[in-house]
Structure formats: structure tokens, C-alpha cells
Amino acid sequence: MPDSEQHKQVNNNDLRNAQFGGGLINAENVQAGRIGGDIWNIFFGQQTTPVGNPARPKNERILLAAVKEEVTARLRQSLHNAVLINLGKESQPQQVKRPWDAEIKIGLKPAVPLPETTTIVEVFDSPDIAGKLLILGAPGSGKTTTQLELAQVLVNRAEEQFNYPIPVLFNLSSWKDNRQPITDWLVAELKSKYGVSKKLGQEWADNYQLLPLLDGLNELEPQRQELCVQAINQFLAGETRPLYLVVCSRSEEYRNYITQLQLNSAIYLEPLTNNQICDYLTSINSIQLWSTISSDLDLLELVKIPLLLSITVLALQKLSFEEWQHLNSTADEIQYLLDAYIGRMLARDLNSRAYLNNKTPNARKTQMWLVWLAGQMQREYKTEFLIEEIQPSWLKNQASKILYKVLLSLIIGISIGIIFKLLYQRSIIGIIVGIILGITYWLPSQKVVIIKTISLSELNKRKLLIGLAVGIGVVIFPSSLSWILLQRHQGQIYIIIIGIMFPLLTGLLLGQPDKIIEKNIIPNQDIWQSVHNAFLSAFIIGTPIGLFVAIIHIPTEGGISGITFGLIFGLVAGGDATIQHFILRLILYFNGYIPWNYARFLDYCTERMLLQRVGGRYRFIHKLLQDHFVQTEFKQD
């Protein structure tokens, strides 16, 4: 083990020199007050503050603000920021196939080292590349961080120039359909990730207003990676081809493809040099660490990867160099280093803002829950996790699946039983009908579908009121007339109710904004949105119906009608998704796969530099760490 003085030096300097600061734990987002305020915004509306040149349309400036926040947060939380070194780059034009190149010339383009001072934006802007670039490198070489650094410069450029395309980060691991064109996928991702309506996203794509930055080509299923390369090439040759495009991939996987990307050139991020490592360790007062590493050629080769050098510095107190040096393979050395890093991060003396005065989970439970999460993400080839995306497919044993179906059917049955009780005074029939509906309607899909489109945007309240007024006037007038003509027949009250119910729903849908940007700002936001939708729909539908029936019939009947139709629409407009999500979380918790307060736990892991968080999205601090947890055996008490 290194001596105690060296431990003390690194312990005092590792986080400060790594430039993590308070940004990594994202304290302003995990404090209870901030989260409470964000929930309030979800229920009563909130807008991202636009940035950039006022000459740019507001929706574009809102998206630009969202991308800027994401880039800033991810760079602040990146382990690569521990090594503040301009990475070496080698031009490798032979890795791409430009459309105008003759086949015979492809093999003649040599790899050329770029000057040490060359930055990624200089590469991007160079005339021979002109913004169409492939970034290659080994695992942990800094590909994603390099792309984020480029994105930061491009965001600043888009802020200043109102007509410059908006850089947007996309991860190719979410490209799930081999037949889906990249343009359609980009539009869908804008909707999923940033809440951009498909109409607006398509408009931006058609008008060349997006600058896609694509990461994680190698994170797709192996058999689909080359298909994705072909889809990207079709995108580059299509009518809506982008003016600029950047793609990141691990070099080992990419070199195995038969098809090459039709970009203008590629660069390869080179390992750190001995001098760079020595200078960095000297700058953080770790001369002894350099002496130890430089005496072992295997370890020296290992820490030439920027990520692993950062982890070595941060994990130093948990490392036994004697044990590390006697491992037989590079893979074993990396696994040992990552184990030491996890142990060090969980042992750090840190006042948790996520748990405040509550007891933090022990190291074993923390690792066990992260192993399970990494496994789920790996099965679905995901690099980002949202709590609201938990699905019934995450229940792996048959007993849990049966329990989920039983509980869902029972709760839906009780809900509909209450409605039948109000309408017909027959709750048993309602429960039976509800269970049948639960089995036939909710269970076959095996997916929690969240409705996120019901909103009372300030810009659309007037439109909503107009839609409601017109709909009610058109339908209620003939219904009321028929009710009078039929001399208050008992059944006419329900014709009037239907006459109100449908125009109200129509008015609500007419009042929807067709251009909206709504990003996930807190964990589990979409489930909170479902709760909001359920209450909003119940209120909008139930209140007018109840008042109308109370005025023209009797107050008691009005109350029953209002509650009944409120329950119906509340269930359909978000209540069902909330119920499904709650049941899933409950089963996973009792199975020991997740803690009770999942968001708090994930924020705690973000504090411990095991996860990154941007808004309500989480990712492992690096794909190597996620893969490490996947390979760790999941054991319960």
C-alpha cells in the first residue's frame, strides 16, 4: 500500500483537482425544497428559460437551453475532467468512405497524428472535415467527453448565431427498429428526451435546424450496429440530410464493420503519453504514485487511458499495488481497479443531501441495487434510466408476474366497482366488470403507457375555453331540446351528460399546444404528470357535469354524476398508469431489487460519483462501470 502521507495528499486534492466541486452531486436538484418546487411546476406549469439570440424562435431557444444544461451537467460530472489534458488525436481518413472517393483510393489515405495543441472544435471546423466527423477511441479514451466539449462550443455558437443549427445529443442505443429511418428516430428522440412535439421536431429536421451529435454506436446489439451504420449513411444521402453530423464509436467494434460511415473524416483519440501522466500526477502532488506506476509497465499502459488514470487517483486509498501488480490480465486489472473505486466512493466521508438526516444505505445494499439496475439497462441496451420507464417486463420470475396481474386487476376492479356503486348501487358487479377489464384491457399490453399531453398551458387556455364553449353549445342545445320534448324522461339526463362529456373532451384536446418543449426536470416526472393528468381530467370532466346535472335535476344526482365521470376520465387519463407503476415498484421493493424511495437512492449514488444525473435521467458515470456491475453477481440476503 502507498504510504499514509501519499494517501493524505491525494485525499485532499483528488476531488478539488478533478474539478468536480458541488456540481457533481447536483445539490440544487436533490434538495427537498427544489424537488418540491419542481413538482409544483409539473402540476401548475413551468417553462425552461430560453437562451440565445432573440432573433431565433422561442421554441428553438428553449431546446438550446435544455441542451446547454445537459452538456454543462454532464461535463461537470465527468470523471474525465479529473485529467485536464488536451487528448492526442490522430487523423484516420481511411475509417470513412466519402461518397466522391474512388474505391481504389480508400486504402491510400494514411493516418496522420495531429499537432498536440489541436482542439476538437478545430478538427470539426477544418475545411476537409466541414462538420462531418467520426470520433473513434478505446473504452475510456474520452470519446463522449470530447463530444461534449465540442457540443459546449457549438451551443455557444448557436447562442450567438440565430441561424446556426442547434446541437443536440442523441444516444444510438435507443434506435430499436432496424427499418426506422434516422430522421424519424431523431424526431421521436426529441419527443422522448426533450418533450418536443413530433410536428415541430419534423419541421426542424426538414429545415436543417438540428446538428445531431450521435454517441454509443457500439452500445447497440452487436448484430444491429452495422445496420445502424447503413441507416446513418441513408440519412446522410437523403433529402433531409444534416449540414453537420458527429458520430462516436469504440474503434474495435467499428473496424469490424464491412460498411463505413460516409462522413468526411475520422479521428482516433490516442492514449496519454508518459509525460502527460507524469505532469498530471506532479500537478496534484502525487509524485509517489507516479514512481510506483512508472516502475510497472503493465500498470503504466493501463493508466494511459484517461478514465482509468482518473479512477486510479480517486480510488487510491482502496488500492493495494502489490495485489494489483500480481493480476494476470488487463481485464482483471481493470475489474480490480473498478472494485477499488466503488469501495472508495462508498466509504467517502460525505454529508448526503439526498438522505439528509436519514440513514444512508450500506455499501452492500447499494452495490446490490446497482447490480440489478445495470442488468436491466444492459438487457434493454439502455445508457439512460428514468424511474417512470420501469415496465412489467422487469419482473423476471413467474410469481411476481402473476402477483402483478392479480393486484392490477383487483385495484382496477375496485375502482370500477366504486363507479358502479355510484351509478347503480351495485358494487359487486362493478368489481367483477373491473377485474374483467383489468384482465382483457390492461394486462395484454404488458406495458405501462403514460399520457403526457394533457396540459393547461398559458398559451392555450384561451383556445381551450373556446373549444369547450363551442363543443358544449353545439351538443348540449339539441340534447336539452330533446330532453324538454320528451318531458323529463329519466334516461334523458344521461343523454345530456354524454352531450357534455364528449365536447369537454374534444375541447380539451383542441386546447392542446401543438408546439411544446417539456423536459424531465425531476425523477419520476412522468408518473407525477400522470397524477396531474388524472386529477385535471377528473376536475374538467366531473365538475361541469356535476353542476349541470345538479341544476337541471337534483343536487345529489349531480354530485354522483360528477364523481362518476371524474373517476372514469381520471382513470383513463393517467390514473391507470399511476396504479400500474405503483404496483410494479411495490413488487420490486419487496423482492429486494430496489429501495422504497428510488429517486433518493439514485441521487445518493450520484453524490457518490457512481451515477450521473441530468434532470430526471440517470446514467452510470461511465459505460465501463455499468458493464462492471453487470458482471458482478447479484446476491440477496
What does it look like?
- It is a single chain.
- By secondary structure, this protein is an alpha/beta fold.
- It is built from 25 helices and 9 strands.
- It has helices at 4-17, 27-30, 32-44, 58-76, 120-125, 143-160, 182-194, 198-206, 222-237, 251-254, 274-283, 287-294, 297-302, 306-314, 321-325, 330-347, 363-379, 398-424, 427-442, 461-485, 492-510, 525-552, 555-590, 598-607, 623-630; strands spanning 89-91, 112-113, 132-137, 166-171, 210-215, 245-250, 265-269, 611-614, 617-620.
- The strands form 2 sheets. Strands 2-1-7-3-6-5-4 form a 7-stranded mixed sheet.
- Strand 8 (611-614) and strand 9 (617-620) form a beta hairpin.
- Helix 18 packs antiparallel against helix 23 and helix 20 runs antiparallel to helix 21 (492-510).
- The longest helix has 36 residues, at 555-590.
- It starts with a helix and ends in a 7-residue tail after the last helix.
